[in-house]
Amino acid sequence: MAGGALVSTGEVKDYAGKVTLFVIMACLVAATGGLIFGYDIGVSGGVTSMEPFLAKFFPSVQQKMKSAHENNYCKFNSQLLTSFTSSLYLAALIASFFASATTRVLGRKVSMLVGGLVFLVGAILNGAATNVEMLIIGRLLLGVGVGFANQSVPVYLSEMAPAKLRGALNMGFQLAITIGILVAQLVNYGTNQIKEGYGWRISLYGAAVPAFIMIVGALFLPDTPNSLIERGHQEKARKMLQKVRGTDNVDDEFQDLIEASEVSKQVEHPWRNIMEAKYRPQLIMAICIPFFQQLTGINVIMFYAPVLFKTIGFGDDASLMSAVITGLVNVVATCVSILCVDKYGRRLLFLQGGAQMLIAQVKIKRFLLV
C-alpha cells in the first residue's frame, strides 16, 4: 500500500512503501501513552465518589452527603476537593511548555519516557497517600506526566504513520484514552465492592500499570525519521525511514523530509509570523477547534460521571456502572471514527459529532428542566 504526503506545491505525492508491521507495532506502543491520561480521567471521578476515600481525606464532604435536606450538588462543594481534582490539569498545562522543548531537542521517545517515569511516581504517591498533601503532590506529578505524554505521543504517531493511514493511526492515541477511561471505571466498580474500605488505594495504584507500559514501550521505540533529521542524524533517519516503509526506495520522501526540516529552520520569529493576516485563518482554526471541543464539557462529564450520576439519585454501584456504560460507548464511537476518518475526512466527523452533541445536550437540558 503506497503512502502519500502533501508537498509544497499543494499536490498529493505518492511515495513508495507499504504499511509495515513494524510501524503498526510502534504506533500501538506509542499510543498507549494515551492510557495514562484516560485512566486518570476515569479513576479520579470514581474515587471521589467513594465514601471511604472521602471520609479519610475530605470528611466535610462525607458529612454533607449524610445531610438529607441538602441539595445533592452542594454535597460535593469543597475547595480542597476541587484542588485535588484540578491540580493535575494545572500541572499538565505548565509541563506541556517544557515538554515541547524536550520533544524538539531530545526527541519524542525521550519525552514519552520522562512522562511515564514522572506519572509512575505520582501514581505510587497517590496510592500510598496518608494525607491530602500527598494526594495533591501526587496529582501534580501525574499532571506533569500527562503533559509530556500529550505533547509527544500525537507527534510521534503522525511522523511514523503513512499519510493514507495517518488519521486512523493518530487516533490510536484517542482510542487509548477512551480505553483507559473504561478500564478505570471498571476498576472503580470492582474496588468499590471491597468492604474493608481500601479499594480506592487499588484504583489509584492502578495508574502505575499504564505508566509502566509507557516506560517500557518508550525504551524500545525507535526515533522517528523527522526527529532524527531535526537533530542532524540524516543517515540514521534514512535507515529508519527504510525500515518503517518496508522498502529501500525512500529517496523522494527522505528528500522532502530534509527540505521541510530546512525550511522550518529558516523561519524567523514564528510567533510573530503566525499573527500576520495571511496566516489568520490557520491561527483561528488552530485555536477554536480544540477550544470549543473542550468547551463542550465532555472531559468534565467523563471525569465526574460517577459523581454526576450520584447527584441525580443513583446509588454507589449504580453510579459507577452507569459510568462504565458511558465509557464503553465512548470506546465504540472512537473505533467507528478510526474506521471512517481517512475514508470520509475530518470535516464530516466534525459536522456529525457536533450535530449529535447539540441534539443530546438539548435533550438533557429539557430533561433537567422537567
From TrEMBL:
Species name: Aquilegia coerulea (Rocky mountain columbine)
Listed transmembrane segments: 21-39, 80-98, 110-129, 135-157, 169-190, 202-221, 283-307, 319-341
Keywords linked to the UniProt accession: Membrane, Sugar transport, Symport, Transmembrane, Transmembrane helix, Transport
Family annotation (InterPro entries): MFS_dom (IPR020846), MFS_STP/MST-like_plant (IPR044778), MFS_sugar_transport-like (IPR005828), MFS_trans_sf (IPR036259), STP/PLT_plant (IPR045262), Sugar/inositol_transpt (IPR003663), Sugar_transporter_CS (IPR005829)
Subcellular location: Membrane
Name by which UniProt lists this protein: Major facilitator superfamily (MFS) profile domain-containing protein
Family membership noted in the UniProt record: Belongs to the major facilitator superfamily. Sugar transporter (TC 2.A.1.1) family.
Source species, domain of life: Eukaryota
Residue ranges occupied by any Major facilitator superfamily (MFS) profile domain in the UniProt entry: 26-370
Membrane topology designation: Multi-pass membrane protein
Entry's Gene Ontology cellular component terms: membrane
Gene Ontology molecular-function annotations: monosaccharide transmembrane transporter activity; symporter activity
